[in-house]
Amino acid sequence: MKQSSLVIVYHRQPYEEYVEDGETKFRANRSPNGIVPTLKSFFRRLAPGDGAWVAWKEHDPETDPDFDKIIQIDDDNDGFMVRRLPLTKEQVNSFYHTTSKAAFWPVLHSFPWLYSYDPVDWPVFLDVNRRFAEATAAQVAPGGLAWIHDYNLWMVPHYLRRLRPDVKIAFFHHTPFPAADIFNVLPWRLQILESLLDCDMVGFHIPRYAKNFADLAVAMSGAVITRTADVSPFLHVPGQALSEPTVPTNLRAGSRDILIDVSPVGVDVQLIDAVLATDASQAMQQEISESLRGRKLFVSVARSDYTKGTIEALLAFERLLERRPALRGAVKLLCVSVKAASGMTAYDDIQRDIEGHVGRINGQWSTMDWTPIVFSSTPIPFDELLAHYRVADLCLTTPLRDGMNLVAKEFVAAKDGRPGALVISEFAGCAVELPDAIYTNPNGNRDVDRAIDEALAMTEAESAARMAKMRASVAARDIGYWTEHVFANFAAVGFAVEPERRTLSPAA
Ligand code: GDG
User: How many domains is the chain partitioned into structurally?
Assistant: First the structure.
C-alpha cells in the first residue's frame, strides 16, 4: 500500500457518506466553510494523491464485517486516502463524549467546575489514541510528517514517536490552552504534556496559549525555553485580555527541540467573496433587506456549547428591548445555535436552555408583525449565512472562551467594508487580531449592554472605516496565509514540499 508524505490526523471524517442504489458512496462535505475544507486544501501542495487523512468511524463489526478501512476520496484536493479507524459506539462514547468533552473541554475553556472525572476511562482513551498512532504509523512515508489535531488526540504523539522515530510530528490546538493553574486540574497532566513534548512542532492560535503551554512545560517537566520573540503588532493589543507582548518560540525538552508555532486560523476570503458575488446571493441579500423593512439585523451564530456565550447574547438582546423601548419592533436577531448530535447531558441542557430563552423572549415581546428572534438549531446553508452577514448591522459574538472563533472573521470578510459592527468577546482568540471590533467582557451584563449601545451609536462613516480595517486584516491573514505559514514551519522542522507546489493558492 502506498504511503503518504503528509498525514492529517483529525477525529472528523473529511467527506460525507451516502447510499445510492444500495451502494455506499462518498462525496466532499457539502458545507464549504469550517476547518475540514481548509485542512484538505493542504493536500494540493503535495504531489497529486500524496496526502492522507486518519479519522474514526463508528462501526459495529457484527453488522458490517466488510468495513473498508482505507478509502480513496477524489475531490478537488488532488485525491487523497482516508484511513478509517473503526471504533465501537462504547469506545466513541468513552474516548470522545466522556474523556474529551466532559473532562478535557471544560478545563481547556477554563470551566474547571464543569470538569467530570468519575466517568473517565483513561485506559480506553489511551487505547483509542494508540490505535490512531498505529494507523498513522502505517500510513506515513519515511521522513514524512504527521499533523495531529486537537485535544482528543493528545496521546497520539507519545505512541507515534515510539512506532516511527523517523517521522516529523506536528500538533495543532484549535481550543484555548489554559494556564497551568487550570490545566493541572487534569490528573493525566504529565502524560499529556510529555506526549506533546514528543512533537517537533506544537501549534496554537494565539501567543497567550503558546505561552501557557511553554510555561507549563517549564514548570512540570523541566523543559527550557530557548527562544522568545516579540509578538507581531497584528497579534498584540496592549491591555487586551488575551494579549501578550512576547512569545516563546522554541523549547528544549530532553534531547528534543520543539518549535512553538503561533498561527491563527484564517477564513477563505476568496470563497466568501465569490459566493456573495453570485446572482443567487445578490437576490437573497435583496430579499433579506426587504424583509427587514428598515429594522436593524443582529446575528449570533455558533455551535450550541456553554463556552460560546449564546445565552449571554440572547439575554443582552432581551435587555436591549427592556432598556430601550424605541428599539422594540426596530431590531431583529438571527440566532443560529447548531445542536450537537451527541446526546451528552451538558449539551442537551444548554440546547434546552437556549431554546427556552428564545421562546420566552419571543413570547414576551412579539407583536402581530414582528418576531424579535429568528432561531435555527440546525445549520443553515453557507450561502444563506453569508447573505445574512452581508446585510446585518451587528454580529454579536460573546463566547466566554473560544480558541479563535471563525464566525467573527467570516462576518468581517462578508461585510467587505460596509457599515456594521462586530461586538466580540475579549476571550475569543480572534479578538487579538481585531482591535477595530467593539470588545466586550461577557462575564458581566453591563459591559455587553455598553458594547451594543456603542455599536448602535457609531456613525456609518466610523463603522464602515472600522469594518474596512478589519476586512483588510482578515483578508491579509486568510487561509492562504495560514497555509503558507504552516508549510514554512513544517520546512523549519525538516519537512519540505516541492517549491513549485508551495506557491499554489489553496482556494485555486
Ligand atoms: C473550533 C474552536 C476555532 C456555524 N454555524 C453554521 C455554520 N457554522 C460554521 C461557521 C464556522 C464554523 O462553523 C465554526 O467555527 P468556530 O471557529 O466559530 O467554532 P468551533 O466549531 O467551535 O471550532 C474554535 C475553530 O475550531 C478553528 O480552529 O476557531 O475556537 O472551538 O466556519 O461559519 N456553517 C453553516 N451553517 C451554520 O448554521 N453553513
Answer: 2
> What are 207-255's pLDDT values in tens digits?
999 999 999 999 999 999 999 999 999 999 999 999 999 999 999 999 9
> If DSSP states are collapsed to H, E and C, what string results for 56-95?
EEECCCCCCCCCCCEEEECCCCCCEEEEEEEECHHHHHHH
Cell of 22: 444500495
State the residue range of the domain holding 458.
269-476
**With pLDDT > 70 as the criterion, what percentage of the chain qualifies?**
97
Residue 290 lies in a domain: yes
Q: Could you tell me if residue 21 is inside a domain?
A: yes
User: pLDDT tens for residues 247-277?
Assistant: 999 999 999 999 999 999 999 999 999 999 9
State the alpha helices, DSSP H only, in 303-426: 310-323, 345-365, 382-391, 406-415
The mean per-residue pLDDT over the stretch 349-364 comes to 96
Do residues 253 and 281 share a domain? no
Same-domain pairing of 297 and 163: no
Residues 417 and 482 in one domain: no
Separation of alpha carbons 113 and 105, rounded Å: 12
Do 9 and 153 lie in one domain? The reply is yes
Ligand 1, atom 38: nearest CA belongs to which residue? 379
Q: Work out the angle at residue 465's Cα, subtended by the Cα atoms of residues 462 and 469, and round it to the nearest 5 degrees.
A: 140
Q: What is the CATH number of the domain that holds 309?
A: 3.40.50.2000
Measured CA to CA in angstroms, residue 473 lies from 222, 231, 488 at distances of: 38, 16, 20
Same domain, 243 and 296: no
* Pair 250, 343 in one domain: no
Q: What is the pLDDT of residues 443-463, one digit of tens each?
A: 999 999 999 999 999 999 999
- Mapped onto helix, strand or coil, the DSSP state of residue 192 is helix
In a domain, 243, yes or no: yes
CA of 405 to the centre of ligand 1 (A): 7
What's the pLDDT score for residue 502?
52
pTM over 0.90: yes
Tell me whether residue 463 is in a domain: yes
Please report the atom of ligand 1 found closest to the CA of residue 406.
17
Query: Is 340's pLDDT higher than 90?
Result: no
Residues 227 and 313 grouped into a single domain: no
**Do 321 and 425 reside in the same domain of the chain?**
yes
Q: How confident is the model at residue 321 (pLDDT cuts 50, 70, 90)?
A: very high
Distances in whole angstroms, Cα of residue 99 to Cα of each of 106, 210, 310: 11, 23, 24
Question: How many angstroms is it from 21 CA to the middle of ligand 1?
Answer: 33
Ligand 1 binding pocket (C-beta < 6 A) is 31, 33-35, 174-175, 265, 301, 303, 336, 338, 379-382, 385, 402-407, 410
When pLDDT is cut at 50, 70 and 90, the band that residue 17 belongs to is: confident
